[in-house]
Amino acid sequence: MPKLRVLVVDDEWNMRNLLRIYLTREGFEVKEATNGNEALEIAANHHFDVILLDLMLPDMDGWQICKKIRERDHVAILMLTARSETKDKVYGLGIGADDYLTKPFEPEELLARVYSLIRRSTITQSIKQPEPVIEFPHLRILPEGREVFIHDHTVEFTQKEFDLFISLARSVQRAFSREELVNLIWGTEYEGEIRVVDTHIKNIREKTQKAGLGYNPIQTVWGVGYKFNGASLSNEKE
Fold first, then answer.
1. Degrees (nearest 5) of the Cα angle 116, 119, 124?
2. Residue 228, φ and ψ in degrees, nearest 5
3. pTM of the prediction?
4. Where does the record place a coiled coil (predicted)?
5. Model pLDDT, residue 139
6. Are residues 76 and 166 in the same domain?
7. Which of 35, 81, 158, 176 has the lowest CB atom count within 10 Å?
8. Residues 208 and 167 in one domain
9. What confidence score (pLDDT) does residue 229 get?
10. Are 224 and 179 within 8 A, CB to CB?
11. 218 forms bridges with which residues in the sheet?
């Protein structure tokens, strides 16, 4: 069973270290961010089960970060703050935070709230609306059924090929490094060769070409990695 993943956002090393100790003892995989911009970048490129978000940060406050995350993600967010005013809690919950914990706190309470949020998030995910079909010229990707159709014919991908293909297709024109793709598809604990990405991209290209797609859906970005070939797709639509 994969580890549950937590992003800890706090500019104080002592607090991050304390939270990392609590969470790793419970078997969580923990990533850390020291400011808002770093937190937003990490959250955009990785999946998390919970985000522990400090309210007071050097570049932007936790409320701003929460708003930005909520624009594109429904990950559970637990706000951490030394401010105990009710109006602050109400505001934080109103803009999308799922829970609010005042410092200082006992580790048992923190862990109880984290597990509660994960349970609630799991229930919500189980009843959420299906992800819509992703469509490009002559190409349809069905996320819920994990199916790919080219010219209305099914193309068989392995699990990792499909995960890689749809991850790129969901972010047209965003260039991913090999490291980002490995972390996204194989997980941060993967210790194999990073060129495994190249092998899977080659297989995807061969399968789409054989199916008669007529264009290369994955573009190599020299010095960076890969991106979905949105430019060619736009030209095709025109």
1. 125
2. -70, 140
3. 0.53
4. none
5. 93
6. no
7. 158
8. yes
9. 86
10. no
11. 228
Which CATH number belongs to the domain containing residue 118 in this structure? Answer: 3.40.50.2300
Angle, to 10 degrees, between the axis of helix 178-185 and the axis of helix 36-45? Answer: 70
**Intervals of the chain under pLDDT 50:** 127, 231, 234-238
Q: Work out whether strand 76-81 and strand 50-54 pair parallel, antiparallel, or are unpaired.
A: parallel
Return the closest-CA partner of residue 8 out of 36, 30, 37, 35.
30
Which tokens in the block code for residue 148?
A: 């790919």
Query: Cis (ω within 30 of 0) for the bond into 104?
Result: yes
Q: How far apart are CA 28 and CA 49, in angstroms?
A: 10
Model pLDDT for residues 47-74, shown as the tens digit of each residue: 899 999 998 898 888 888 998 888 878 8
Q: How far is CA 33 from CA 7, 92, 174, 224, in A?
A: 7, 20, 22, 23
Domain of 51 in residue numbering reads as 5-127
End position of a domain, from candidates 127, 150, 185: 127
Cβ atoms of 8 and 78 within 8 Å: the answer is no
Residue 236: its pLDDT value, please? 43
Tokens of 181: 């793709």
CB 174 within 8 A of CB 221: no
> What is the pLDDT at residue 73?
81
Stated length of the chain = 238
The answer to whether residues 84 and 36 touch, using CB atoms and an 8 Å cutoff, is no
Q: Return the number of other C-beta atoms located less than 10 Å from residue 120's C-beta.
A: 13
What distance in Å separates the CA atoms of residue 42 and residue 134, rounded to the nearest whole number? 24
Question: Who's near 90: CB < 8 A, 6+ residues apart?
Answer: none
